[in-house]
TrEMBL record, chain A:
Pathway this chain belongs to: Amino-acid biosynthesis; L-tryptophan biosynthesis; L-tryptophan from chorismate: step 5/5
EC nos: 4.2.1.20
HAMAP family hit by this protein: Trp_synth_beta
Functional note: The beta subunit is responsible for the synthesis of L-tryptophan from indole and L-serine.
InterPro entries: Trp_synth_b_CS, Trp_synth_beta, Trp_synth_beta/beta-like, TrpB-like_PALP, TrpB-like_PALP_sf
CDD domains documented for this protein: Trp-synth_B (cd06446)
Self-association state and partner proteins as the record states: Tetramer of two alpha and two beta chains.
PTM annotation (N6-(pyridoxal phosphate)lysine): residues: K95
Keyword Lyase: yes
Native organism: Jeongeupia naejangsanensis
Top class in the EC scheme: lyase
Descriptive protein name: Tryptophan synthase beta chain
Family: Belongs to the TrpB family.
UniProtKB/TrEMBL annotation, chain B:
Pathway stated in the Swiss-Prot or TrEMBL entry: Amino-acid biosynthesis; L-tryptophan biosynthesis; L-tryptophan from chorismate: step 5/5
Protein name: Tryptophan synthase alpha chain
Gene name for this UniProt entry: trpA
UniProt key word Repeat: no
GO molecular function term, any single one: tryptophan synthase activity
Top-level division of the source organism's lineage: Bacteria
Annotated organism of origin: Jeongeupia naejangsanensis
Residues at the catalytic site: E49 (proton acceptor), D60 (proton acceptor)
Length: 403, 267
């Protein structure tokens, strides 16, 4: 039997099929080359990998459990839903898996200063956390709109010693924060390591972030085997840039019979144009933030403003590997609207005693949508990528409650 | 020989350096751009770099970001910019025009379609900031086939291997970014520019222009002493930002003072 999918991406220059690559101004090219070389050395260095794994176990608290959401599954009346509990990681989301890896890399490269962009603030918090842990200066760029809607995370970053810079250009969200981080990096390229938070950007970032996040899927494969004696029928994860999704998808790419479903932000509905779902809506391929990938843009190639209730998904592009997985048909991508995500958020709070991040609530909502169409012995594995404490002010405001 | 190559060769024969101003097309409104282009020429410019507005200008500082935003408030598209060049060409058949911008608007139009339309409009060169030589082979070939010079950036961080990669694809001139940073930064170090230029010129057959951080006659003269061309952008865009009253005359006057200073640097 040889039905195993063979998958070996990206190529030497960071192309995932027709996506990825390196699209940056010349000043950054040598820094990216240095990063690529150092990264390849690091992942082949047993001492580096041992320290990374030690930190994941003792600082982050890995492995994160897989939890059978029995009560919610029964209420939905179909497939069994299992949750990969990345919300239980130190700092409350999957982001720290990557920031630890990159901070160790920064230290190895002799960089004393790290910068990061953040949307929901989870990556900013995870970057500020590891900067404190390893004694690095940390500057986080965050869209002014996100600073307003994610205020608890802004304060957390400050407590951890980071400088948070609100970005007021463009749409004042994640993409603009990324522009500003790139400008900082080009100016301070000798002293500074740029910790990109998602599996996007110029090569080698999409590969490097994926590799550091793959611990999610690698653990899940072992845990599912232990718990149910087989692998799930489908793995579901939310996709903004796509780092939590690629982390759980990638170890499953060559496993036949496991559907991979990425859930994008449908915002007010993909038909309204106010969303952040480039894959679901078959956006044109474009170039932004150092990579080629599906990209929400107007007819003139200007990047359009996106909308999602969740700041972490409010991004017009997507990591190049997701675009490639869509092209080859290995993963499917759907959109969940704000209101559907909010319902799933409340349901998980009430029926399982878990407050999920609004980003992860998109993946939960899609599981809730398809579970009733499946039989009770089928299994859905949802990546619960983060906890929702940071979203409490947003939810309260939507519910008309003053905290 | 392209219009850019002819212009730069003639200057070299005369031991002079090219003055290359940059303004963003459509800033502060589309109707004024052609008039401003003529004002740049009147001030003694040899080549015009015309910025194509983009929503996410990652390599630009606040001054040129705001210029893009002002132009985009009027929905200025790449096709509109080509229209401005065509209009300019009706009364100026001599001055080379280089479009400078980001890859996505060109991607969206398609490289072949764009190249045809650009040549028809009278564009001579294209500088795509976020398209390094590794990703530019096809597009550079397309541009050259249509007689457009692909202009590439070089930086203080560029190693020899990459200078050679650029040399293989570049024509017209190459643009040396004088400092690590975004446009409009204020820390020009002429001595380090001179040292790097000497290295670049030993590998390059095309002329080298220098930009980033040149903002007055004095810094232009210093750069002209070591480079083939001097690019001035943010300083001019600040002039645009200051308001439309007397704008064309102010641009002409400023560039004339720069031109005069550069010509005293004759080698």
């Amino acid at each position: 039997m040889n039905d195993k999918l063979r998958y070996n991406q990206p190529d030497a220059r960071g192309h995932f099929g027709q996506h990825g690559g390196i699209y940056v101004a010349e000043t950054l090219m040598s820094a990216l080359d240095e990063l690529r070389v150092e990264y390849e050395k690091a992942i082949n260095d047993p001492a580096f990998m041992a320290e990374y794994r030690y930190e994941l176990a003792h600082y982050v608290g890995r492995p994160s459990p897989v939890y059978h959401a029995k009560r919610w599954s029964e209420l939905l009346g179909g497939a069994q839903i299992y949750l990969k509990r990345e919300d239980l990681n130190h700092t409350g989301a999957h982001k720290v898996n990557n920031t630890i890896g990159q901070a160790l890399l920064a230290r190895r490269m002799g960089k004393k200063r790290v910068i990061a962009e953040t949307g929901a603030g989870q990556h900013g918090v995870a970057s500020a956390t590891v900067a404190a842990r390893y004694g690095l200066e940390c500057v986080v760029y965050m869209g002014a709109e996100d600073v307003a809607r994610q205020s608890p995370n802004v304060y957390r970053m400050k407590l951890l010693g980071a400088t948070v810079v609100p970005v007021t250009s463009g749409s004042k969200t994640l993409k603009d924060a990324m522009n500003e981080a790139m400008r900082d990096w080009v100016t301070n390229v000798d002293s500074t390591y740029y910790i990109i938070g998602t599996c996007a950007g110029p090569h080698p970032y999409p590969t490097l972030v994926r590799d550091f996040q793959c611990v999610i899927g690698e653990e899940a494969k072992v845990q599912m085997q232990d718990m149910i004696g087989r692998q799930p029928d489908a793995v579901i994860a939310c996709v903004g840039g796509g780092s939590n999704a690629i982390g759980i998808f990638h170890p499953y790419v060559e496993v036949p019979g496991v559907r991979l479903i990425g859930v994008e932000a449908g915002g007010h509905g993909v038909e309204t144009g106010q969303h952040a779902a480039p894959l679901t809506t078959n956006a044109k391929i474009g170039v932004l933030h150092g990579q080629r990938s599906y990209l929400m843009q107007d007819a003139n190639g200007q990047i359009v403003e996106t909308h999602s209730v969740s700041a972490g998904l409010d991004y017009p592009g997507v990591g190049p590997e997701h675009s490639h997985l869509k092209d080859i048909g290995r993963a499917e991508y759907v959109a969940i609207n704000d209101d559907e995500a909010l319902k799933a958020f409340h349901d998980l709070c009430r029926y399982e005693g878990i407050i999920p991040a609004l980003e992860s609530s998109h993946a939960l909502a899609h599981a809730a949508k398809i579970a009733p169409t499946m039989s009770k012995d089928q299994v859905l594995l949802v990546n619960l990528s983060g906890r929702g404490d940071k979203d409490i002010p947003t939810i309260a405001k939507l519910d008309g409650i003053q905290l | 020989m392209s219009r850019i190559q002819k212009t730069l060769a003639a200057l070299k024969a005369d031991s002079r350096q090219a003055l290359i101003p940059f303004i963003t097309a459509g800033d502060p409104r589309p109707g004024i751009t052609v008039e401003l282009m003529h004002a740049l020429v009147k001030g003694g410019s040899d080549v015009i770099e015309l910025g194509v507005p983009f929503s996410d200008p990652m390599a630009d500082g606040p001054v040129i970001q705001r210029a893009s935003e002002r132009a985009l408030a009027h929905d200025v598209s790449l096709r509109d910019v080509l229209g401005m060049v065509a209009e300019f060409r009706k009364t100026d058949a001599e001055t080379p025009v280089v479009l400078m911008g980001y890859a996505n608007p060109v991607e969206a139009m398609g490289y072949e379609t764009f190249a045809q339309a650009a040549v028809a409009a009278g564009v001579d060169g294209v500088l795509t900031v976020d398209l390094p030589p590794e990703e530019a082979e096809d597009c550079a070939a397309t541009f050259k086939r249509h007689g457009i010079d692909p202009i590439f950036l070089l930086a203080p961080t560029t190693p020899v291997s990459r200078i050679q990669a650029v040399e293989r694809l570049a024509s017209g001139y190459v643009y040396y970014v004088s400092l690590k940073g975004v446009t409009g930064a204020a820390t020009l170090d002429v001595a380090s520019v001179a040292a790097k230029l000497a290295e670049l010129q030993s590998y390059l057959s095309v002329p080298v222009g220098v930009g980033f951080g040149i903002r007055d006659p004095e810094s232009a003269r210093a750069v002209a002493a070591v480079a083939d061309a001097v690019v001035i952008g943010s300083r001019l865009v600040q002039e645009v930002e200051a308001g439309e009253a007397g704008l064309a005359a102010r641009l002409t006057e400023f560039l004339a003072s720069v031109r005069a200073a550069m010509d005293t640097a004759r080698r």
